[in-house]
Amino acid sequence: MEVLEKYRDHNLIAKLLAYVLFFDAGASILKMFINMIRWGSDLFSIFTIIYQTVPVLAGLILLLNKHHDKIFKLSFAGSLVVTRLIMLIRIIASGNPPVTSVLSNFVQFILTVAIAAYYLGVIRPAGRKNHLIVVYGIMGIAAIFWIFPIGSISVGIFGLCAVMVLYGYQETRGQGNQAMFVYGGMIGTAYYMVYIVISGLLGLFYVYLPGFFGYTNFVLVMAMPLLVYDRIVPNEGQSLMLDFGALTGASAPVQYAQPMQQNNFDPMTGQPINVQPQQNNFDPMTGQPINVQPQQNNFDPMTGQPINVQPQQNKFDPMTGKPIDPNGGQ
Questions:
Q1: Is residue 163 part of a domain?
Q2: Contacts of 65 by beta carbon, 8 Å cutoff, 6+ apart
Q3: Does pTM top 0.85 for this prediction?
Q4: C-alpha 49: how far from its chain's center?
Q5: Between 274 and 27, whose confidence is greater?
Q6: Which end of the chain is more exposed for a tag (fewer CB within 10 A), N or C?
């Protein structure tokens, strides 16, 4: 695993994900224009463009490191919910749609609202363990609809959202088996990128990968949230709670206001926390001397020991002026 360690750079992976999302959105729009050229302008659909706002906004957040920017977060969550709502309305308004199609689109809309609330902080993040429970609960429901012939639900978008929820937090290295989970997430993400690019290119010419690749992609998309498993999560150990003040920018409840401390340093800022007063001219955070005074009378003010002792002269101690010879300097 040492070989993969140098690639364990979340900023690099964020950029790669962003480029793949841009390609995915561009390929979908390009395919629509190819169809228009081949079979007529009647195939133009404004909804195709609207639906691509979700991957484009996700890509911008990952590329520009806007994980904590309120406008970007609201835009992404809003587009996620609105596009799923539009899909649901279009299915219902199409006239006598299959019950399974209505059901799957309705479930996808509910799951999208849930993941958007979690992403915005309405459901307070309360530790990596709870995060994975929430994410895999949502993705598990989507998987049931995706695997069985109930309806089509995008599992990949929920896997992407799961990564984005925790992406903005500082990384800490996972120990032992946790590192294996992270590398599994990296490999899953790499496969996801390759799959999207190849399937997007082939789809332009109406050539599709065998179903095996789709199921493999599904399995590895489930590994993507593990990519951020070893990141610090504020309020580790706190219980889940609803906080609708997150939508207005109100301050978090007291028990959720501070991230966990490590070694007296704030993991989010790297600044010392609860610094103690100086003791004996030593910094309690580093153990280094502070405000060292200049030497006085050839004595170190920090230790009281003599400095730069000169050789004896005429049997008298040059530091004290006292005789050294047992006979009193005679």
A1: no
A2: 11, 14
A3: no
A4: 27
A5: 27
A6: C
Q: According to the model, what pLDDT value does residue 243 have?
A: 67
Query: Looking up tokens 């706002």, which residue turns up?
Result: 53
Query: By mean pLDDT, which of 14-28, 178-192, 314-328 is the weakest?
Result: 314-328
> The tokens of 31 are what?
């395919």
Whether 185 is in a domain gets the answer: yes
The neighbour count for residue 117, using CB atoms within 10 Å, is 18
Q: Would you say residue 16 lies in a domain?
A: no
Q: What is the DSSP code (8-state) at residue 256?
A: G
Both tokens of 131, joined, read 């995060």
Residue 132 pLDDT greater than 60, yes or no: yes
**Strand, coil or helix: what is 306?**
strand
Taking residues 128-156, report their average pLDDT. 83
Q: How many independent structural domains does the chain possess?
A: 1
pLDDT-derived band at 57 (thresholds 50, 70, 90) equals: very high
Provide the token pair at 6: 């140098």
Where would I find the H helices in the chain? Answer: 2-5, 10-39, 46-51, 53-64, 70-93, 99-120, 128-147, 155-166, 177-203, 211-221
> In angstroms, rounded to a whole number, what is the distance separating the alpha carbons of residues 310 and 298?
10
> What amino acid occupies position 168?
G
- The pLDDT, as a whole number, for residue 211 is 82
- Asked if the structure places residue 147 within a domain, the reply is no
Between CA 328 and CA 315 the distance in angstroms is 9
Range of the domain at 193: 178-232
Task: Select from 7, 270, 52, 17 the least CA-distant residue to 167.
Answer: 17
